[in-house]
Amino acid sequence: MTTPPCQQPHQLIEKVVTHVLINSFHSLSVIVTVHLYFGPTPPPTPGHLLYSTRLKAIANHAGKIIRDVLKKGELGIVQKENARDLQTEADRAAQRCIISSLSQCFPKITIIGEEGDEESKQISGKVYDPTPESTIQVTCPPHLASLGEEEIVVWVDPLDGTAEYTQGLLDHVTVLIGIASGGKAVGGVIHQPYYNYQNPGSELGRTIWGVVGGTVGGMPIVAPPEGKLIVTTTRSHSSSTVTDAVDAVCPDEVLRVGGAGHKVMLLLEGKAHLYVFASPGCKKWDTCAPEAILQAAGGILTDIKGSPIPYQASVPFRNSTGVLASAPGQNHAFYSAKIPQHVKDNLKA
Ligand SMILES: Nc1ncnc2c1ncn2[C@@H]1O[C@H](COP(=O)(O)O)[C@@H](O)[C@H]1OP(=O)(O)O
Ligand SMILES: [Mg+2]
Ligand SMILES: [Mg+2]
Ligand SMILES: [Mg+2]
């Protein structure tokens, strides 16, 4: 039997140094500094998953797989529930990589991936070795840093924005790895594999990570412009209730783009104020990572009624009551109250 890659000796490993301090909001936080060195690998601690460079490395590798499949040109498109619900070889291969790599390092966590059990079970010999690549510094609240493996549920969307991927709208594509505990989204990584693909010479791809009650990293958080309201919503899964909800908040501008991860990134980088999706189309893997990162940055993601979305392993996958997300500093409750009652009634739990 071979030793899992992340438990092999003589490889770069992470030593975690924890300092407890009172942060600028006068609440108790933990600064976790991840140092890299050669030596025998101790088993990673479960809460470690939240701030580990492993998550970022695995998401980046899934992004490389997505680019490689497209370069090869054999997308292997399969229709799932309907003509607007597709799966490609990139979705399948990226999920195999993420789930096999994560479960090798953290065998007791619950991992739920969009593309189902069959993809997850095919743990081939080619497990990606998520050896950390760089030093990062994040803050993580003590109750999350000390989580046990059994307390963690990881929601994986190996390729968010599949419709746009097949249509060549490549910067709409993201890889989403969301971490939940106690039914709440507590941390996550969004990797955008084609960021900068239209700017030759610039670094291709970017990765954003965040821990609720801790920090966000990977991109500057920018406030959206004052004095106007920019709403982002679906471009490929619209309906009359989707349109009614968008119209009800009276936007000055509407950005119709693909992907839940991509739309939350627009909120984080100040390109939109609100993400409105009055549809049961999104699932828990679409919203877990984006919700955690947005919340870590000071924004809010709920269902269309303003109620929290639950993330226990036992909940239905579908976000049947829609999605409403607001950039940091926006009045989430105000916009939720503007969604018409017939739209809310149409989205039953
Ligand atoms: N009707 C639907 N059927 C399947 N997936 C959906 C549907 N609506 C939304 N999604 C998922 O939510 C994401 C965000 O929706 P949209 O892009 O329409 O705003 C989509 O990229 C898709 O994720 P995925 O691409 O991972 O299948
Ligand atoms: Mg899909
Ligand atoms: Mg998705
Ligand atoms: Mg997907």
Task: Characterize the structure shown.
- With 349 residues, the chain is α+β, with helices and mostly antiparallel strands.
- 28% of the residues lie in helices and 26% in strands.
- It has 10 helices and 16 strands.
- It has helices at 53-72, 89-105, 116-121, 142-145, 162-166, 240-248, 260-268, 284-296, 332-338, 341-346, and strands spanning 11-22, 28-39, 78-79, 86-87, 110-113, 137-140, 152-160, 174-181, 184-192, 206-211, 216-217, 230-233, 253-256, 274-277, 300-302, 323-326.
- A 6-stranded mixed sheet has the order 5-7-8-9-10-11, sandwiched between helices. Strands 13-12-14-16-15 form a 5-stranded mixed sheet. The chain has a 3-stranded antiparallel sheet with strand order 1-2-6.
- Strand 3 (78-79) and strand 4 (86-87) form a beta hairpin.
- The longest helix has 20 residues, at 53-72.
- The termini are far apart.
- 47% of the residues are buried.
- Adenosine-2'-5'-diphosphate binds at residues 84-85, 114, 157, 160-162, 234, 236-237, 258-260, 277, 279, 281-282, 286.
- It comes from Homarus americanus (American lobster).
Summarize the structure.
It contains ten helices and 16 strands.
Task: Give the SSE map.
Elements: E1 11-22, E2 28-39, H1 53-72, E3 78-79, E4 86-87, H2 89-105, E5 110-113, H3 116-121, E6 137-140, H4 142-145, E7 152-160, H5 162-166, E8 174-181, E9 184-192, E10 206-211, E11 216-217, E12 230-233, H6 240-248, E13 253-256, H7 260-268, E14 274-277, H8 284-296, E15 300-302, E16 323-326, H9 332-338, H10 341-346
Parallel strand pairs: 5-7, 12-13, 12-14
Antiparallel strand pairs: 1-2, 2-6, 3-4, 7-8, 8-9, 9-10, 10-11, 14-16, 15-16
The structure holds adenosine-2'-5'-diphosphate and magnesium ion (3 copies).
One magnesium ion (MG) binds next to strand 7.
